[in-house]
Inverse folding.
């Protein structure tokens, strides 16, 4: 059993900042990629940013330069620092991990989501 617990979502004014966290626990041998996705009302879920175990990052064009993803492998935690927030960033943000469990079986899990609302 694997659990992802997200935190940090809130209501913030445009131009403000938030930091999301996602803590992973359970039967995991290795977490390879950790990522943040978001889903706004009436839209499909989209990748915001992801990060490999070695620290390689990938960002959506809409957030590059404003958001920064990082991870602490010792704590099985991934962060998303969001700066210069815009109303278009309003969405439910989901944490996602890909890796292998203690029996080397591939795994892919999602968090429950945390709401980010940016007011204009």
């Amino acid at each position: 059993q694997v659990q992802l617990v997200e935190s940090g979502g809130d209501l913030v004014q445009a131009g403000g900042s938030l930091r999301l966290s996602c803590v992973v626990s359970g039967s995991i041998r290795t977490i390879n990629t950790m990522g943040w996705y978001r889903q706004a009302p009436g839209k499909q879920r989209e990748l915001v940013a992801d990060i490999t175990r070695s620290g390689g990052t990938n960002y959506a064009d809409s957030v590059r330069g404003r958001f920064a993803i990082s991870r602490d492998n010792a704590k099985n935690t991934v962060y998303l620092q969001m700066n210069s927030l815009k109303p278009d960033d309003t969405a439910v943000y989901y944490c996602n991990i890909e890796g292998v469990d203690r029996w080397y079986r591939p795994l892919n899990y999602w968090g429950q989501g945390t709401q980010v609302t940016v007011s204009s």
In short: Residues 15 and 84 are 4 Å apart (CA to CA). The longest strand covers residues 30-39.
